[in-house]
Design a protein that fits this description.
This protein has 344 residues and is of the alpha/beta class. The strands form three sheets. An eight-stranded parallel β-sheet has the order 1-5-6-7-10-11-12-13. The chain has one domain: Metal-dependent hydrolases (TIM Barrel, Alpha-Beta Barrel), CATH 3.20.20. Helices cover 40% and strands 17% of the residues. The protein is built from twelve helices and 13 strands. Helix 4 packs parallel to helix 5.
């Protein structure tokens, strides 16, 4: 059985020099690493002030390389979303719109070339909610995408911010799958060593995002919103008991915007299963159930699952129907797609 991977990232092979166009910096450039006699197989992601971000390989932009990896690992479909560092939520609104449109046009083009192997999630200029809604409508209409990827926050706005509610509401109305990915991690001044922003900051960002949509009443007000969170929900599953107890112990602090307990919403959100070890996956299954968990690998980055589906297949207690749900069925439900639309 071939599976669906809901968490993979794609970027264009060449990025515009936005700083020259817009007149200010902070944007990412892609610098090919020359290798004699062959097309570039590696590149450096560098901020336009020269600060190195990360090195990537051709499978980050080359559909053929991705499909080769998919075929080797039994992945029938990848859900494509941009690399979060490219969100540019901090840019001027009209420039954020231009960046989003460029990234979305490229991603949609890749999906059009391989419609039975790739599904697209767009990115939005969330710093301006009205522009974000316009681009969301373009993604779901003209570009034929399945949904959008959003960051865990937009500057000071968490996902319960009134400014963002209209975007999420429109996503629900359009039937868009919404994928929440951590980015711009909190407290960077305290996480300068040991890769801490990725190891500690990202899980904290996801826990904050899930708690925000629960306590802020977003899920209560938008019952049709299909929302998924990356990295197994980050720190949220491990701290759920504390979150639930806090609601019960101090409703005067926790129930100010939503009178219902957090446990009410465990079956309302989706998670990818990218948790790296069996005990963590068992915790997800016990809290959320297989109907809420889908395979996600964070391909093609090193913190991802390098052999897609290996962790799910490693749990001996799972029957075939549960494994199929985790590897395929939950993803199809979240995407609102059918198996017949893909090469599975």
């Amino acid at each position: 059985m071939r599976c669906i991977d809901i968490h993979t990232h794609l970027m264009p092979p060449k990025l515009p020099r936005w700083a020259e166009t817009f007149g200010y910096g902070g944007f990412i450039q892609l610098e090919p690493i020359a290798e004699s006699g062959t097309p570039p197989c590696r590149a450096r992601m560098v901020r336009d002030d020269g600060t190195f971000f990360r090195e990537v390989e051709a499978n980050c932009w080359d559909p053929a390389a991705r499909l080769g990896d998919c075929d080797r690992h039994g992945v029938g479909v990848q859900v494509l979303s941009t690399v979060p560092v490219l969100f540019a939520y901090w840019a001027k609104p009209e420039h954020g719109r231009d960046v989003s449109r460029f990234l979305n046009d490229h991603l949609a083009g890749v999906v059009r070339e391989h419609p039975r192997r790739f599904v697209g999630l767009g990115t939005l200029p969330l710093q301006d909610p009205q522009l974000a809604i316009e681009e969301l409508e373009r993604c779901m209409g003209e570009l034929g995408m399945a949904g959008v990827q959003l960051g865990t926050h937009v500057g000071p706005w968490n996902l319960d911010a009134p400014e963002l509610f209209g975007v999420l509401q429109r996503a629900a109305e359009l039937g868009a799958a919404v994928f929440i990915h951590p980015w711009d991690m909190l407290a960077p001044e305290r996480m300068r060593k040991y890769w801490m922003p990725w190891l500690v900051g990202m899980p904290a960002e996801s826990a904050l995002a899930i708690s925000s949509v629960i306590f802020g009443g977003v899920l209560e007000r938008l019952p049709d919103l299909r929302i998924a969170f990356a990295h197994g929900g980050g720190a949220f599953p491990g701290t759920f008991g504390r979150i639930q107890h806090g609601f019960e112990a101090r409703p005067d602090l926790c129930a100010t915007d939503n009178p219902h307990p957090p446990e009410r919403y465990l079956k309302r959100i989706y998670l990818d299963g990218l948790v790296h070890e069996p005990h963590a996956l068992r915790l997800l299954l016990s809290l959320f159930g297989p109907e809420r968990i889908a395979l996600g690998t964070d391909y093609p980055f090193p913190l991802g699952e390098l052999e897609p589906g290996r962790l799910i297949r490693s749990l001996p207690e799972l029957d075939d129907a549960t494994r199929e749900r985790l590897l395929l069925g939950t993803a199809l439900e979240w995407l609102d797609r059918t198996r017949e639309q893909f090469d599975l």
